[in-house]
Amino acid sequence: MEILISTSTSKPIYEQITSQIKAQIMSGALQPGEALPSMRALAKSIHVSVITVQKAYEDLQRDGFIETTVGRGTFVAPLNRDFYQEEQQRQAEEHLLRAADIGRTSGIPLETLLKILTMFYQEGE
Which of 25, 84, 20 has the alpha carbon at shortest distance from 48? Predict the structure, then answer.
């Protein structure tokens, strides 16, 4: 598992860890049941505090991406299809929000944005 920490972003380190692990799980790079490094091992490998990794793991567990068992370790949780779809929709909403902001500030009509989105959506069919 590879985690890259950027010091040139305002995003907190624990959020960088959380989002990268989520992305690896959702892309299939990390499979359900696969063991994750211990908090201490991950903290050491990416040169951050154990408390920072602990916060990331707590968020991932709360969101259903990982499961931690005392004495066994931390593992990728079985995929919950509804949760997966919800997370994908949340990500799509973030991108659409950005597109809407660009459209508004650039004077691109909503109808044009809708046509573009419809075209992209239908290309995948």
Answer: 20
Is 75:21 a contact under the CB 8 Å cutoff? no
Residue ranges of the alpha helices (H) in the chain? Answer: 13-27, 39-46, 50-62, 81-106, 110-123
Angle among Cα 19, 71, 38 to the nearest 5 degrees reads 35
Alpha-carbon gap, residue 52 to 3, rounded angstroms:
13
Q: To which residue do tokens 């793991």 refer?
A: 57
User: How far from 86 is each of 1, 46, 82, 97, 99, CA to CA, in Å?
Assistant: 24, 30, 6, 16, 20
pLDDT in tens, 18-77: 999 999 998 889 999 999 999 999 999 999 999 999 999 999 999 889 999 888 999 999
Q: Is the pTM of this model over 0.85?
A: no
Question: What's the full length of the chain, in residues?
Answer: 125
